[in-house]
Amino acid sequence: MLAASKKDNEMDKTLVSRLQALEPLMWINPGLGPTASVQVPVRPEQVAEAEKNWRLLGPLLQHCFADLQHSGGVIASELTEATDLATAMGKAPGRYFVKGDHALPVAGSVKARGGVYEVFLHALSLARQLGLIAPDATPSELASDAVRKKFGGFTVAVGSTGNLGLSVGIAARALGFRAVVHMSADAKPWKVTRLRRHGVDVVQHQADYGTAVASARQQAQADSTIYFVDDERSELLFFGYSAAAAELRDQLTERQVPVDANHPLFLYLPCGIGGAPGGIAYGLKQVFGDHAHCFFVEPAQSPCALVQLASGLKSVVTVYDIGLTNQTEADGMAVAEVSQFVAQVMQPLLSGVYTVADDDLFRWLALAQEHAGLQLEPSAAACLGGPQMLLSTAEGQGYLAQHGLDACIGQGTHVMWATGGSLVPQDEYQGFLQKGCALMV
Ligand SMILES: Cc1ncc(COP(=O)(O)O)c(C=O)c1O
């Protein structure tokens, strides 16, 4: 076993050993504080602003994407009660839902919420800056051949493990931009093929996600016609995701699912760089306050948010620092170093992080198909293990006791955030399923 490096000085040695042994575990965040008193570098009003911006973009989005024709340009996913699936996963009392971002329109993953938002807001601001539209023009005015033609002289670039690239690439091409996606070595070939079909230039790096992002950032810095979507630092991405909280609130209200001191809400959010789960969790804490208990999930080989938060925020800590490889089948979560921006925001807001073994991702992916008819990719299946981790581990039970939730846990609601999968090609998906079924016998 690898020795702990000097960077993990401040991380509990037992925790480091368990992470190095790749043991799926739950870590409870000692930094969690009351929502009302947190001091973080973003503001709740930014969530409301994002909700407003999404509404303003609606007609333009409807114009640009065939799959938004019937939703009035709204990018939203279904909330599905998943009692059978939860039972198959070893259900305890409470209600269980899957938030179906695996089937989000436009990009088939949670990344549609961030990538589309940032690219469309950038387009609006560029068009105003270039005088292509009046300062008070509505976004719909971007839907003209003249604007498209002008945008053809500009590039939108991004570094990605795959799904953000799909979202940003598709959005940029829909508006007429040139699009360049820098992909990490983990990116699945079908995502590369799909992007190229949309006319996106794909640069494939034989290196990890951090290197792909750094390379994209460097190229953009040298060329003023390139706009770089910075997954490691972008507030626009973060707030694009955050608007999902209001969507969930409305769906729970519609189903008369209460969320209050006696009806806690538990959320399980797959985490890579942290932008998507961080943005959603930040939004949820604004909507539900302390009654929302947000947990990230990460692959056992890539627990980047966990190692950073458990070490404190004084210096950057990566999964490599404790000898992990960052090799996982969950390509969307193959990230060695969490966004420092997200780590700062989540430090007082996150309830905890649990880790998952790759084999379990395939088992759960197969259960999701069998018991709920959901087509998930491995990263998304990670959300399904949350309730068991919370209810069955000593750490999870400790959390419930510490927050006085033992008595009302039977009235709790668990939302498993399924973040991607509907665009996975059938042959690839059948391979995932077969692997999951084989692991279950
Ligand atoms: C399917 C899926 N789930 C979760 C994530 C994690 O999102 P983030 O990297 O913003 O933490 C990703 C990222 O690409 C993803 O593709």
Notable traits:
seven-stranded mixed sheet; 441 residues; four-stranded parallel sheet; D-serine ammonia-lyase activity; pyridoxal phosphate; Rossmann fold; binds pyridoxal-5'-phosphate; 18 helices; alpha/beta; single chain; EC 4.3.1.18
Could you characterize the architecture of this molecule?
Belongs to the serine/threonine dehydratase family. DsdA subfamily. The modification N6-(pyridoxal phosphate)lysine is found at residue 111. With 441 residues, the chain is α/β, with parallel strands linked by helices. The protein has two domains: 6-107 and 242-440, Rossmann fold; 111-237, Rossmann fold (3-Layer(aba) Sandwich), CATH 3.40.50.1100. 44% of the residues lie in helices and 13% in strands. The protein contains 18 helices and eleven strands. It has helices at residues 13-20, 45-64, 83-88, 111-129, 145-151, 163-175, 189-197, 209-221, 235-242, 244-254, 275-288, 304-311, 340-346, 358-372, 378-381, 386-392, 394-402, 426-440, and strands at 26-28, 79-81, 95-100, 155-160, 178-183, 201-204, 226-229, 265-270, 292-299, 352-356, 413-418. The strands form two sheets. Strands 1-10-9-8-11-3-2 form a seven-stranded mixed sheet, with helices on both faces. Helix 4 (111-129) packs across helix 9 (235-242), helix 9 crosses helix 11 and helix 16 packs across helix 17 (394-402). The longest helix is centred in the first third of the chain and has 20 residues, at 45-64. The two termini are 30 Å apart. The structure holds pyridoxal-5'-phosphate (PLP). The site of pyridoxal-5'-phosphate (PLP) has 21 residues, from helix 6, helix 11 and helix 15.
